[in-house]
Amino acid sequence: MAQTSRSIADLETLLATNGARGISGIDVRDLMESAMGCYGGLHIDGGSTALSLTATPAEVDTWLSSANLRNTTADLVNGRLQLDSDGIWRLDFSASFIVVTATDRFNWQLRADAVAIAGGQRDVTGVLAERASVHISQLYTAVAGAEISVYAAAVGAAGDATLEHANLVAHRVG
């Protein structure tokens, strides 16, 4: 039988049956699985990934590697991180990039199943030919199978940026 990550409410219900000795070995294993957490991440390290951006948000799909996958599934081809269990997830995105063209503002968004996550976006102002950075940290209540991705857009005129380093990390916290 596969290990199962359970919600806090499911674990509380399970533990309430202990007086009747209703906890099996599988239940204990599932408790440990749930307590150990779920996490995963996508990374761009030491790269120089060019992004040509317009006012229409485009998915960042140039992730080079994934790491520490536990109840998450990395899709490097499409640039998504799938959350494999229900729960409250802390999503963190950080990136450093160089502004290549004269556009001075970029909008970065966290999305779930291609829909913007409320509160999960930031506008970043950059200076031509200089490094800029962005960080977004957001709690998100997900159902199993949700696909998390990052979108970027130029605010105003079209612009180019070169991603030097980026991380998208998900950690289930509840």
Report helical residue fraction. 10-25%
Which overall shape is indicated by the principal axes computed on the Cα atoms?
A: elongated
Radius of gyration: 19 Å
Number of helices: 2
Summarize the helix and strand pattern as letters.
HHEEEEEEEEEEEE
Would you count the extended β strands for me?
12
Mean pLDDT: 82
Strand content: over 45%
Low-confidence stretches: none
How does the major sheet shape up? 6 strands, antiparallel
Distance between the termini: 23 Å
Structural class estimated from helices and strands: mainly beta
Folded structure, characterized:
The protein starts with 7 loop residues before the first helix and ends with a strand. The relative contact order is 0.26. The longest helix has 12 residues, at 25-36. The protein is elongated, with a radius of gyration of 19 Å. The protein has two helices and twelve strands, in the order ααββββββββββββ. The model has no long low-confidence stretch (mean pLDDT 82). Strands 1, 2, 4, 7, 10 and 12 form a six-stranded antiparallel beta sheet that branches. Strands 3, 5, 6, 8, 9 and 11 form a six-stranded antiparallel beta sheet that branches. The chain has helices at 8-16, 25-36; strands at residues 39-44, 49-53, 58-59, 65-70, 72-75, 80-83, 87-99, 105-112, 115-125, 131-142, 147-154, 159-172. It has 174 residues and is mainly beta.
Please give a handful of descriptors for the protein shown.
174 residues; mainly beta; six-stranded antiparallel sheet; 2 helices
How do you describe this structure in short?
It is built from 2 helices and 12 strands.
